[in-house]
Design goal:
260 residues; alpha/beta; eight-stranded parallel barrel; 12 helices; globular; Indole-3-GlycerolPSynthase_CS
Length: 260
């Protein structure tokens, strides 16, 4: 099994457990469920912001613990102040040491779109995302069938959520283009072996229809790379590890933004 296979198998168990503990109607009754969502496209294209989707990420399967000291609220507040266009928060517990409580904590201090970064395999997780304060959900083409992408994205849109679809190659891209998607991200990290190459972004940028926000994800550590990716046609850039691996992620993003 690849790491992705292991994560998805565990995720299905988690969802089954969560459904036993908290019903869909209970999620729908939570205060944040009825809140309007911030618009991802508007925030990304806002000339006063950077296009950066800055990520709060404690750990990963490939690196282990990245940052176990910086709190969610101080980090995401710093990201927002530095000009991030959106915030991503990992909610996977077993592999990334995240939680839904991290999502709600972030929501309390943000006035920009918030992404639930998760391996979504069930509509229930989308309802959870809304109930805990997300504006955006992530769908990963590598772990979903074409019909699942359509069904899940349409359900997310019915709740007012923005949808970011993640692809890794042209085959995944072509099976995944639906009107219910807002943004398409190219993951430069191969989820099967966690190797990273920016060539994935450059190879796919012109194959993504222009109606979608184009996002380059992972492996971005140099402000010059942002300039090159913008020139190639990307609107947004998901960056997590580069800031989180420092002692002060808030200072790290400020310095990064100065250089772009």
């Amino acid at each position: 099994m690849t790491i992705l296979d292991k994560i998805v198998a565990r995720k299905k168990e988690e969802v089954a457990d969560a459904k036993e503990k908290v019903s869909l109607s209970n999620l729908q009754a939570m205060p944040l469920f009825s809140c309007s969502c911030y618009n991802l496209k508007e925030s990304i294209l806002d000339p006063n912001r950077t296009g950066i989707i800055a990520e709060y990420k404690r750990a990963s399967p490939s690196k282990g613990l990245i940052n176990g000291t910086s709190s969610v609220q101080e980090v995401v507040s710093g990201y927002q102040a530095a000009g991030a266009s959106a915030i991503s928060v990992l909610t996977d517990k077993d592999f990334f040491q995240g939680s839904l409580e991290d999502l709600t904590a972030a929501r309390e201090v943000l006035q920009i779109p918030l992404l639930r970064k998760e391996f979504i395999v069930d509509e229930y997780q989308i309802a959870e995302a809304k109930a805990y304060g997300a504006d955006i959900i992530l769908l990963i083409a590598a772990c979903l069938e074409q019909q699942e992408i359509k069904t899940l994205s349409e359900y997310a849109k019915s709740l007012g959520l923005n949808v970011l679809l993640e692809v890794h190659n042209e085959e995944e891209l072509q099976k995944s283009i639906f009107e219910s998607i807002d943004a398409i991200g190219v993951n430069n990290r191969n989820l099967k072996d966690f190797s990273v190459s920016l060539e994935h972004s450059y190879d796919l940028v012109n194959k993504i229809p222009n109606q979608f926000i184009k996002v380059s994800e992972s492996g971005i550590s140099d402000p010059e790379t942002i300039k090159a990716l913008k020139k190639a046609g990307f609107n947004a850039f998901l960056i997590g590890e580069n800031f989180m691996k420092t002692k002060d992620p808030m200072a790290a993003i400020q310095e990064f933004v100065k250089q772009i």
